[in-house]
Design goal:
The strands form 2 sheets. Strands 5-6-4-3-7-8 form a 6-stranded mixed beta sheet, with helices on both faces. Strands 1-2 form a two-stranded antiparallel ribbon. Helix 1 (11-18) packs across helix 2 (22-34) and helix 3 (54-91) packs across helix 4. Strand 7, helix 6 (161-172) and strand 8 (177-178) form a beta-alpha-beta unit. The two termini are 44 Å apart. The chain has helices spanning 11-18, 22-34, 54-91, 104-115, 145-148, 161-172, and strands spanning 38-43, 47-52, 96-100, 119-124, 132-133, 136-139, 152-155, 177-178. It is an alpha/beta fold.
Length: 194
C-alpha cells in the first residue's frame, strides 16, 4: 500500500486503491488519525498527505498476528474434526468417500484423509468445469456419484453448508451424509455428524 512505503496518497487515491467509496475512505482515515495510526500533513493546494505512524505499523502487525493465530486455530479445529469424522465413517465401513464442495475445508479434509488412510474418490461441485481438485476428480453433479461407487459424502462446502447437506441427504440419505460440527449444520437427528 502506498502509505506503508512512505508515499503520499490522496483520499480519492486511497478510495480507488482499496475499492470503497470516497465518503467511507474519509471516515476510515479520520478514525485512523484519531487512533494515532495515521499522520496528516497539509501540503500545497488545500490538500493533505497521510502517513502511517509507528503506532499504525504496530497495529497492522498485531492484526496480522491475530489473523494468523485465528486461522491456525481454525485449521487445527477443522483438521481434528475431519479426522474424527473419518474414524467414525471407517467404523461404519464407509470406504469410498466423496467430498461435497470445493473449498479450503475440502483441502483440510483431504489432508486429514491422507493422514488417516481414507479413500477420497471424488469431490462433488455442482456446475464445476474443473477436472481435478488437489489430484482428486471433480464431479459436476451428484448424478455421477453412482459411477464412482461412493459409500458416503462429507460436506466441505464453506458457503451454504446447510443447503449442501440437505441436497446430499436428498440424494444419498441421512445415514450416508456426514458433516463436522464447525459447519453448524442442523442434521435433525440423522446420524451424519459428530
Amino acid at each position: 500500500m502506498a502509505l506503508e512505503n512512505g508515499q503520499q496518497a490522496s483520499q480519492r487515491g486511497l478510495a480507488a486503491s482499496i475499492g470503497v467509496a470516497l465518503g467511507m475512505t474519509n471516515y476510515l482515515v479520520k478514525r485512523a488519525v484519531r487512533k494515532g495510526l495515521l499522520k496528516v500533513d497539509k501540503i500545497p493546494a488545500k490538500r493533505y498527505a497521510y502517513y502511517v505512524t509507528p503506532k499504525g505499523f504496530g497495529e497492522k502487525s498485531r492484526l496480522v498476528a491475530q489473523y494468523l493465530s485465528s486461522s491456525l486455530g481454525f485449521f487445527r479445529q477443522a483438521r481434528s474434526e475431519y479426522s474424527a469424522l473419518f474414524a467414525q465413517m471407517s467404523a461404519q465401513n464407509h470406504a469410498r468417500i466423496a467430498l461435497f464442495g470445493v473449498s479450503e475445508l475440502a483441502e483440510i479434509a483431504l489432508l486429514s484423509a491422507q493422514e488417516d488412510n481414507v479413500n477420497i474418490v471424488a469431490v462433488i461441485q455442482p456446475g464445476s468445469n474443473q477436472d481435478l481438485f488437489s489430484g482428486v476428480p471433480v464431479l459436476s453433479s451428484s448424478e455421477f456419484a453412482n459411477e464412482c461407487g461412493i459409500d458416503a459424502v462429507v460436506i466441505t462446502a464453506a458457503e451454504a453448508p446447510q443447503a449442501a447437506y440437505e441436497l446430499m441427504v436428498g440424494r444419498f440419505g441421512a445415514d450416508r451424509v456426514f458433516v463436522v460440527p464447525l459447519l453448524h449444520v442442523n442434521c435433525e437427528g440423522s446420524g451424519g455428524s459428530l
